[in-house]
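--- STAGE predict ---
source: upstream dedup step, 1 unique chain passed
mode: sequence only
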Amino acid sequence: MPVSNVDLGIAMRSSGSRAATLRSVAISCFLACLPCTPAPAAEGSAAALDALFHAYDRDSAPFFPFSASDFGIHEFDSVLPDDLGEAYRSSLGRLCGSYLAKLRGLERGSLDHQRRLSYDIFRHRLESCVEGLKYPWHLLPINQAGFSLPSRFPVMGAGRGAHPFRTVRNYEDFLKRIDGFVVWVNTAISNMRAGAARGITQPRVLMEKVVPQLQAHIVEDPRESLFYEPIRNFPADFDAATREALAAAYLAAIERKILPTYRKLVAFIRDEYLPRCRTTDGFAGLPGGSAMYRNEVRFSTTTDIAPARIYDIGVAEVERITSRITAVRAEIEASGEASPSRYHDADDLVRAYAALRDPVATAVKQLFGRFARSDFEIRAIEAYRERSMSSSYVAPAADGSRIGVFYLNAASAKSERGATVSRSLYLHEVVPGHHMQMSLQRENEELPSFRRAVWYTAYGEGWGLYAERLGDEAGLYRTGHERLDTLQWELLRAARLVVDVGLHEKGWTREQGIDYLVKTVGSPRASAELEVERYMAWPAQALGYKIGEIKLLELRKKAQAALGAAFDIRAFHDEMLRDGAMPLTILEAKMDEWVAQQKFARNRAE
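--- STAGE serialize ---
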């Protein structure tokens, strides 16, 4: 699962956790000028569309400063907006509505193939923005899942995230972003109060887990704070006077801004918010929650499949995969195969995953013709997040200034039983999964900037799950236990369809969801709790994995049937990844067109 703060649609449905981070105070003058943006010149649809994208890059930059920085726009490197505030939301709504109207004024039929793709993806993006703003996600800004800003900001402040600490300007910029964080938290508290008054709150069981996460950042000595890490790791070219001045500034910011802000947030949640939190678990327990959930289903799957149908798909997939697991377990037992190695140290586990880099890179060459240039590293998730955050991936910067990161949840290595290496997880998060897919997308300079940064759950997570399957074709699953591991992961993704819809559409309780995962998937109860609570905080996101994978397998089967002996798996995979993430409906149309071109070329050759 990737972590991204650059997608417009994701920012709209943030629950606070998926929002791009900007400060409205710093951009209020800019936002006031948005309606003044001129329409593209009427010089042909292609030129007008290109001009529209260029203008959008400029006008959207203050809303998404980290994405802007990735693409060389550094004007907002010190900004962290109050994306929960009314000024930000209303201005973003005007931006999306304005660009949607301009886009609809262009003639799509006269565009070439690549621009038609851009047109369709941009339209979907803007329509999702307008639609998403109708729902009160800004009243649910904080959760336990590890992705809301109070959890992510310390990672950034420690120099492990999107904000660089290479120059004096970088250090000074982050001090301004601390000011933005203070504003954001104040707005979050105000919004949570407003939400509580309307009966729109997080489940109490989730917020009880938020409190210790936040308390981890309240330290006695400011030098023990994660926000002091950049001071411990100055670039070598900083002189003594610069180091001294920055150290004093950071100590002051931690003492006077960071620590008081976390104390204020903890006190509010513990003393005021928790007593008003709901005791229901699914979104059906919120006013208007059913409509919010169904919108999220459409957004996450990029389809119109009804929740009830998704539930039925999940039940059928659980039955099919369970049958396969039973067969593989019988094979393991009959062969007397030894159990896989277990690791009892997080660093050893990280090194074991790193050892997969070369063999996987070699094995997948038979399945792909194009590979990413960007590098990646593997890190264990920080202790304060590991109890609630799953393993995940953070994409590299488009300009090459930051490599990708595979965040590994190594908590099980600290248990008595220890942890095993999951090749499926590696394939999903790194190669040929998220790292490869997202890096190729960001490296493709032929795409408009918004397409190089965009993310769609069904495409991206569907690709990640599909990538796990490729381990068999690449010969990477050498043992019965490794085949069993990938089936277990697939079973979990199928069970998610049942539990997610069960929670939010069918009135399931948290306990029902946990019991289902324990019984059906065989998950340890603690793992099942983490999973179910993630679905409670992040409704419908978990649906994208299996729905996306099913569509990708369907497209592959259709291409194989149409092309027969001429089907080339490497060409098919390269085409799937060539144009970056997109809604599944658009992907299917694109791949149908590609298959038709392949058939035409084959017929001409014959």
